[in-house]
Amino acid sequence: MNIASLTNKLVKLALNQPKVLPSSCCCIRHFHCSQDVLKNFSTRVPKNSKIGSWRFESDVDPTKYTLKPLTVAKTGGRGPDGRIWIHKIGGGDKVLYRMRDMKREGPKEGEPLVERVNAVIKDETRSANLAVVAGGDRKRYIVASENMKAGDIIKTSGKISAMPVRPSEGDAHPVGSLPLGTLVHCIERFPGEGATVATAAGTFGVYLRKLGDKCVIRMPSKREMVVSQECMVTVGRVSNVDHNKTKKMTKAGDNRRRGKRPASGWWQRKTGYHGRKIRPMRPPMVYEKPHVDKPEVFAFTV
């Protein structure tokens, strides 16, 4: 076969290829990602990327705080490539997403920041209740404590005192200013990062001891964590303590209303007949400095 005939065949092959319509290249919807990390998909998405569990429409900017409830867009468990990544997701009732302010920042000198609780409402997307608080010229949602109610006055201080303070439930202080044995929630791992530990309904940590400028807190998982004394915590226990008792599934339709599809495969309950391994408690987690490279937000399109 000479070069001329080979070139003619290649030209015919290229001309016979089907044309791609412009409409098939357009995305149906554009979604913004929140800051939660979707695990176990490191092979399908680029490295150093974040994919959130909540998707919003393209006209919503999730980086700007707002008191307006946001409409959550449904994906049916499909990833950015249009394929099903999570099989047990689909359907469900429409829910409204409310932005929580997880940073309780107060002045390090002088009088603390005083805020008033306007209302305590139920959150449709999380287990803990939300409190609408207002102070100065700002109004926001925060995680409500167990006995918090409308009309309460809460204080936020960033001052580390030499003597332990006597806080009330709902107040936020650096963990180094609290007395030993205090029940705390909304715990920061690094100063100024925002609360990441003990934010679910009914959870709390216990301030155990102080090691120099470090404080040891027992997490809800019974594991200990060592954080800086400047990390902010909220005094008390998270609200909606009976969440695991009152929100039980009574029929199969309850899970479908929550957006969970039926599972497939054979599952057997572990009876404990042959025993289970008893492992020792793992060593405390020491948080000294945050990660240098923060993962980028992955543009989620369907």
From TrEMBL:
Q: Which GO terms describe its molecular function?
A: RNA binding; structural constituent of ribosome
Listed GO biological process terms: mitochondrial translation
InterPro entries the record matches: NA-bd_OB-fold, Rib_uL2_dom2, Ribosomal_uL2, Ribosomal_uL2_C, Ribosomal_uL2_RNA-bd_dom, Translation_prot_SH3-like_sf
Q: Start and end of every Large ribosomal subunit protein uL2 RNA-binding domain? A: 77-156
Q: Where is this region: Disordered?
A: 248-267
Domain Large ribosomal subunit protein uL2 C-terminal intervals: 167-284
- An annotated GO cellular component: mitochondrial large ribosomal subunit
Q: Which UniProt keywords apply?
A: Ribonucleoprotein, Ribosomal protein
Q: Name one Pfam family in it.
A: Ribosomal_L2_N
Q: Into which family does the record put it?
A: Belongs to the universal ribosomal protein uL2 family.
Return the PANTHER family for the record: LARGE RIBOSOMAL SUBUNIT PROTEIN UL2M (PTHR13691:SF73), RIBOSOMAL PROTEIN L2 (PTHR13691)
List the protein's name: Uncharacterized protein
Organism of this sequence: Elysia chlorotica
